[in-house]
Known about the structure:
Blueprint: E1 8-9, E2 39-49, E3 55-62, E4 64-69, E5 72-77, E6 89-92, E7 100-110, E8 126-133, E9 136-140, E10 146-149, E11 188-189, E12 191-192, E13 209-213, E14 217-222, E15 225-242, E16 249-255, E17 275-279, E18 285-288, E19 293-302, E20 313-318, E21 325-329, H1 334-348, H2 365-379, H3 382-394, H4 415-418, H5 421-432, H6 435-453, H7 497-517, H8 525-536, E22 537-538, E23 543-544, H9 555-563, H10 572-582, H11 591-600, H12 604-611, H13 619-624, H14 651-660, H15 665-670, E24 672-680, E25 683-691
Antiparallel strand pairs: 1-12, 2-7, 2-10, 3-6, 3-8, 4-5, 4-7, 8-9, 10-11, 13-20, 14-15, 15-18, 15-19, 15-20, 16-17, 16-19, 21-25, 22-23, 24-25
Helix pairs in contact: 2-3, 2-5, 2-14, 3-5, 5-6, 5-7, 6-7, 7-8, 7-9, 9-10, 9-11, 11-12, 11-14, 12-14
Amino acid sequence: MKFVSDWITTDEFEKIKAIDVFHKQFEPKEIAETEFKNYHSHFIKELNIEKNGNYEMKISADDYYKLYINGEFVCQGPAPAYFDTYNYNLINISNFLNEGKNIIAVHIYYQGEINRVWNSGDNRIGLIADILCDGKFVCGTDESWLCERAYEYSGDTTYYYCTQFREDIDFNKKNPSWKTDIKSGEYKNARYVKYADWRFKDKPVPTVDTYKVKPEKIFKYDETTYVMDFGHEITGCVYFKAKGERGQKVTVKYGEELDDNGTVRFMMRCNCDYYDECTLSGQIDEFDFFDYKAFRYVQVECNGDVFSPDELYVTVRHHKFDEKCVIKSDVPYLEKIWEICKNGVKYSVQEGYLDCPSREKAQYLGDFTVSGLAHLYLTGDTEMFKKALFDFAESTRVCKGIMAVAPGSFMQEIAEFSLQYPLQVLNYYNLTKDKETLKELYPIIEGLIAHFKQFERPDGLIEDVYDKWNIVDWPENLRDGYCVELGSGGNPVEIHNVLNAYYIGAVQIMEEIQKILGLTEHKNSDKLKAAFLDVFYDKDKKMFFDDAEHTHSALHSNVLPLFFDIAPSDAYENIKGFIMKKGLSCGVHFAYFVLKALGKIEAYDEEFRLLMNEGEHSWVNMIREGATTCFEAWGKDQKWNTSLCHPWASAPIIIVIEDIMKIRGDEFMNGGNFIKEITENGKKYRIELCVKK
């Protein structure tokens, strides 16, 4: 896709060359640090409309934009992407335009940090736009556009992992009329980007949905402090107006919980020191923050009666969420488990499947195994799932073995996450029967396997996979005593069970895809399974062990051989008993594999019992601890930096649909009402799923 117009930027960035930020994680590379950080700018253009018609705007920016027409917010974007497979949006703007003069205003943001959120720290900043009428080009970005630096964003402190700068807005430095008045600021003419190297994808991506939400409760804590409760965790930007003395401070704090004294716990468990401190101008100041946060509670602190809490709201944002699947059940806790998992997915899926919308805001490959499939089942949105598959495919620019985070300028590699990619592709195909996409992504899977093949021993198993972190499970305290020393990545790791189980699973899924596509099959998985059994399986004990010396047998080492059909059938009962004894002594992400492993051997009653268990490691425990979205760990104190909104814990959505209700992919996509009756402790219960076509 080509734009008619060209990229424009400010004069500070006009002739700056891009920085190459890409490298394998454990191969040190000296990366020049960008001169600019937390760089906000305004671009503005007067547009005269002389005739009626269907007006559209093709628009993109790096790192990000918010578009206003005649002072009214229109949309924001684009979804993060690598510079040579960049995203753009196509927006119908007819309803925002007037006949005659119109003001197009765009707020552009360049963060400048190397992190998991933006493709930033690379010196690429700019705006590009075409305005079309009935499909014909009218005008676009050029050097007649005006621009100014938005100096009011004066914060120089980032939250944890450099995810976001504090928005310490100094309203004395703000041009309050920039959205509507082309003469109001100290504007300069925009400049063409001299070294523009962006290339665009063929199709536009959707923008996030935005809508206003008011607090459910407002508390006046003392004469200077108001606390607002939105009822459950949300993602978005706080908005209100205030008027006080020039230089007066207003502090806005955000949190997922309240402290014991009833104020907002803004120093959050996930290590975000979540507050903004703003300086009033003496006029009416509009608190319209640019970047979003994740929170349930907001606290505003100021001296004097400078704002009305009744007028405060949050502009909530997330990917479009039209519910396809709704549950009704009298099984204790089941509806609530579904609800917290649904909310975790809803508010974390932004322009990608984020691991959490607070601390990291990253699209992680392993998390996507669960959150992507849960989101697809909840919404029926196969295009979002497909987009993520290509996001990770494009990360092979760095390593054929696929990056753990994509897209983004932060380089992280996790071996077990990479090896889940073939499973994700097959899950997509099984639900969509989209053979063209399967064919397009097959070379990525082939390259992935080739990458790991370099670590094979003579028997075909892999060892010393030093170029990626071997994780097994996360956090470390939920590895069930897995006995292999994994280190922190970048060093050789002895041969171990979990990594080889994932490898064998990836190889056999590649062989299954070869069969679907009518390609020549390479039956390597049978040889690998035999070698795996020879190294890790004890025939007498009918158990799998973590290492070749059979030192220890962890939950993980027995779950994956079931999940990937490696375990001999005469070991099923023994392993099933072992799993039920261990329970969910694992991370919430790996719980998906535990439950599905039981489903693979048709132990559905045990699977449901484990899903609904009320122990310390359970979704019920999250509910006991007040969850409104699913947690990063089973409990708030089970991880040192627990996020209370983390959709990698949304496995129950998948388990209920696929295994408990036994709904096939084609049945689900076609919709219908599905009912199941179960008996537990002598009492009958009912589960009903209403699925839209």
